[in-house]
Design goal:
globular, 150 residues, Trna Endonuclease, Chain: A, domain 1, single chain, 4 helices, 6 strands
Length: 150
């Protein structure tokens, strides 16, 4: 049985869409919705970096274009009684956002490797993507939309 949850959204009074607000809403959803034994991380590789921080991060292996979320989600028990996991990569964009060249490179490489990669523009699309990948969720946003582009 899944629970309905409400997540905080980007401030609706702001005139411009805010990917940071969407990122926070997705993290809030994942904290509540992922089944026990699942985990996720947000990869903060983009945005402004003051001083030499960008160079230090690059030296530590941080590369532009890496998907925003890496999710290791537990799947339901299969026909043989085994429970497996699925790894899902989520790139977040606002309604008007477009992929950069480095993000397209990551997308193409991950898809070529057979990975689950999705471009999502809302928490509802993240939920639909996880369900499409077979993730076991213990909460839902509401009516699940068609899965986003893979």
């Amino acid at each position: 049985m899944s629970r309905k949850i409400v997540t905080r959204r980007a401030n609706p009074k702001r005139p411009r869409e805010n990917e940071e607000g969407l990122t926070k809403a997705v993290a809030d959803f994942l904290d509540v919705a992922l089944a026990k034994g699942s985990t996720f991380t947000h990869v903060a590789s983009g945005g402004y970096r003051p001083g030499g921080e960008r160079g230090r991060m690059h030296g530590q292996g941080v590369r532009r274009g890496c998907p925003d979320f890496v999710i290791v989600a537990r799947r339901a028990v299969d026909d043989f009684g085994f429970r497996s996991h699925v790894v899902v990569f989520i790139e977040l964009k606002t309604a008007s956002g477009a992929l950069e060249a480095a993000q397209e490179t990551w997308r193409d490489a991950l898809k070529a490797a057979g990975a689950w990669w999705f471009l999502c523009r809302s928490v509802e699309e993240v939920e639909a993507a996880l369900r499409d990948a077979g993730a076991s969720l213990k909460a839902e946003i509401g009516k699940t939309k068609k899965p986003p582009a893979r």
